Amino acid sequence: MFRKVHSVAEINEVLEQLPSEDLTMCLKVGSILKSELGLEGYDLFYEFCEKAHNFDDAWVKSAWKSCRPDKGLGYLYWLVKNR
Question: Domain map of the chain by residue range?
Fold first, then answer.
C-alpha cells in the first residue's frame, strides 16, 4: 500500500512510475498537481511532460492552463496502481 506523500520530491518519485507520453495522463497529472500544489505545481508538471518523446512546449503551457484542480493525491496513487 502507498504511504502519504509529504513533499514535492516524493510526488516526483510517484510520477516517475507513470508514462508521460500519454497526453491524457499528462492532463490527469496536471489536475492533481494544480490541486495539490497550486501554481507551484507547474514546474513539476513541465518536468513530467518533458520526459516524453512527443514533448511539445506549447502544448504543455496550454494544457496547464486547461487543467482543473479537481483531483487529489489519492487519484495519483490510483493511477500508479491501475496502470
Answer: 8-81
| Strands in 1-52 per DSSP E | none
Q: Is 38 left (phi over 0), alpha (psi -120 to 50) or beta?
A: left
The enclosing H or E element of 26 equals helix 23-37
Query: Which grid cell sits at 55?
Result: 514533448
Name the pTM for this structure: 0.89
Count CB neighbours of 46 within 10 A.
17
Q: How far is CA 44 from CA 2, 34, 76, in A?
A: 20, 10, 14
CA-CA distances (angstroms) from residue 20 to 3, 53, 74? 23, 9, 19
- Residues 41-75: pLDDT tens digits? 999 999 999 999 999 999 999 999 999 999 999 99
